[in-house]
What does this fold into?
Amino acid sequence: MRYRAGLAGLFITMLVAACTQSEQGSSTEGANTAGQKAAAVSAERLSNADREPGAWMSHGRTYDEQRFSPLAKINDKNVAELGLAWSYKLDIDRGVEATPIVVDGVMYTTGAYSMVYALNPVSGELLWKFDPEVDRSIAGKACCGVVNRGVAVWNGKVYVGAFDGRLIALDAKNGKQVWSVDTLIDGERNYSITGAPRIIKGKVIIGNGGAELGVRGYITAYEAETGAQAWRFYTVPGDPAKPAEDKAMELAKSTWFGNTYWKQGGGGTVWDSMAYDPELDLLYIGTGNGSPWNIRYRSAGKGDNLFLSSIVALRPETGEYVWHYQTTPGDTWDYTATQHIILADMKIGDADRKVLMQAPKNGFFYVLDRATGELLSAENFVPINWASHVDMETGRPVVTDIGDYSDKAEVIIPGPQGAHNWHPMSYSPQTGLVYIPAQNNVMQYEDSDAPPEMGLNLWNLGIKEPTITEDADQLREVSRAFGGSLIAWDPVTQKQVWKQEYPYMWNSGLLSTAGNLVFQGNSEGQVRAFAADTGKALWSAPSNTGVVAAPISYEIDGEQYITFMAGWGGSYPLNLAANLQTEVTPSRARVLTYKLGGKLELPNEDGKLLDAAQPPPMTGTPEQVAEGAEVYGNHCWQCHGFNAVGNAVVQDLRYLNEIQHKNFAAIVKGASKPRGMPSFAHVLDDEAIESLHHYLISQSHKLQAMPGE
It folds into this structure.
């Protein structure tokens, strides 16, 4: 018997709410309390969002993506009086990464499998809900879960990028579909959409994910009224035997080598960050890692591989390339530059500069001139060992011997979880500080013995699959290399001003406010507030779950609210959390909204005790168990955790019941596709599946033999 977060059926936890009601009020599906003015957002309103401080009209509140609220009724003097005003239970307890939009009296947000919810932002009452009915069997086509980071709104419509690659426009009044387009260039590849669209000049702009699984990156703009494609910008070259799509791809071709990269996809997916400067009329995008990760198998071990791991400036009306800065030339570590981009104006030295700031996975904090792409400064904000510094003359990181794993395995800092992942930063123009949800993590990188295998649901890395020790003492030692922090960073001096430590990584994105506050949730099941100038902890409340999405603030009828999307999402809770945390907070997907004097309490939700069913006898040979461990390492750990140690999101495979053991081969071959378990029949034969089963039975027996189990 072991403490676990909650029961899971077959291979995927999909706890569906018994009703769609707010936990405070009743549901009126299809109602529109905002009257005829639903999401009446225009280019003028978006460009002048600061004139409406009570709204949160776009992903980062403003086009500059600062995630700073000018509201100050909740401040460092009274934040201790903050209490829960309402909560709303989402349908599926996973994939919670969205930033809600609040405009014209309605909150629009998303949950797992790209489900869209319209809520009353004062009461939490459900107004309408849209389920795009994503095929549950394609969950394996993304690296990090069936997540969604939110919607965009424009001229009476709500836009969502569905996990399966559709871009969908909904009527903001009732959630009815207006139009839908397929954004995928190749439906047979492992493409997905997890990011939030942006709308600029009447165009909906969206990128795709899938670089871990072998795809070519691109970003596309569609006409907001009709869904007609306006332009597409590719981030890496295609077939070298064909003409380049544009001048940017002609430039990029000379930085790639070999003749196989285009068959493997190349990577460079634009799966998250964007920002826009209306004055310069420039759209800034962040691009992802290579596919495969290892440059040896991607580009003959050489070349910068544009535009991987880059910040790229485009014209939003045409997609025309303007400039780029590559944070990690020749990326071979999964150091994406898809992390949050922030625009700000500040004095650097004697000059007033229009800057762009990013803290990507590689551990350096970059400040660029956003008109030209000139590098102004770069310093590491956490300890790293893959590079010593960024050469200010060349703008390139100086890679250390440790950073090169082409000849021997190296333990590299940071690992692929990154010094900062997708969780949004925030910038306060009051303090002049950037608030970073930073993290420490390591991984041993080792060159693979063979090129990566391409196929549906298959990771495309080109390195040996990472492992983690099963020895308890060694695991505790490893855990010390992992952790999280909230860092207040001065972008002018490139120095830390204050820091709040967390025992675990994967803490939420950030919100700063004019009330001298910074809000953040964490993986321990709390939401918190700190003084923006000093970092002093001022308020906390239980969330009953891990919190990873960034909070927002809005105002209705003179009342200021703070909203957190609570629940787990992303890679860490899937494959690492259960190994590195002594107790993983369960995944309970909710919208949690607070106000001064709020009195609501969350439901009392104790964790459930799972009884491990008696596993079948251990009949497998040591060779079969070892082979099964290899199969697990190649195909299963990404969702079910290292060493089959389950997590707060999907099934712990050491707890398979009698029926699951009996039907194990059928499940692996696709019998549970409707519940979210992909089929691996195309890559695993009966012998491999049998070995995998023997390995899991072995792990289950180890679990039962553990003290206290």
Residues 521 and 527 are 4 Å apart (CA to CA). Residues 1-21, 24-35 have pLDDT under 50 and may be disordered. The two ends are 5 Å apart (CA to CA). The longest helix spans residues 686-705.
